[in-house]
Amino acid sequence: MSKVSNTLTMLRLLESGRKYTKYELADILEVNPRMIAIYKEELEKSGIYIDTIRGKYGGYIYHQKHNYNISFDYLDVDAIESILDKLDNKERDKLSITLEKIRAIVIYSTDEGRYPEIKQDEINHKYKIISKAIQNNEILEFDFHKKRRKFIPYSFTYYKNYVYVTGLELNHNDIKTLNLLGIENLN
Fold first, then answer.
1. Which of 63, 86, 110, 173 has the most CB atoms less than 10 A away?
2. DSSP conformational letter for 2
3. Is 3-61 a CATH 1.10.10.10 domain?
4. Cα–Cα distance for residue pair 160/141, rounded to 1 Å
5. Predicted TM-score (pTM) of this structure
6. Per-residue pLDDT reduced to its tens digit, 134-184
């Protein structure tokens, strides 16, 4: 695994509240025990402080859970999309990957409050239309966040009680993942 992956995995382990020795962490992460100190240092550079208990029964422990709040919403995504429209292709390509990561954070963290009522008949209808478009490689047109979109759907994703479609949005030539509940006026 990469340094970032190992660092985040170590943080997830420590969030349990259990004390781990550097040898236990090194064994789980399959790295040299010296790397555990490096991962701890990287977390501290990011403002996430791991407590060190010294002595024979010492180790690392983390007492706080999720103090590294990341907050984005749909307005942030829309703002970045409007900036992307003004960039040249090379700059747009670099930022569109970051935008997709932010979009995923927003989708999976805010959809619960955004769509309080799920109308199953409406979802089923949209699902059938999109499924047919996936099978036939067709272009769909619909409104999403008050913007008209041309979209080639590729696949569905399911998270909690929501259905998402991933595909190529032709307006921006970009891969998007959209909640079916936000799709309106589907042709």
1. 110
2. -
3. yes
4. 26
5. 0.43
6. 999 999 999 987 889 999 999 888 766 778 898 999 987 888 888 888 899
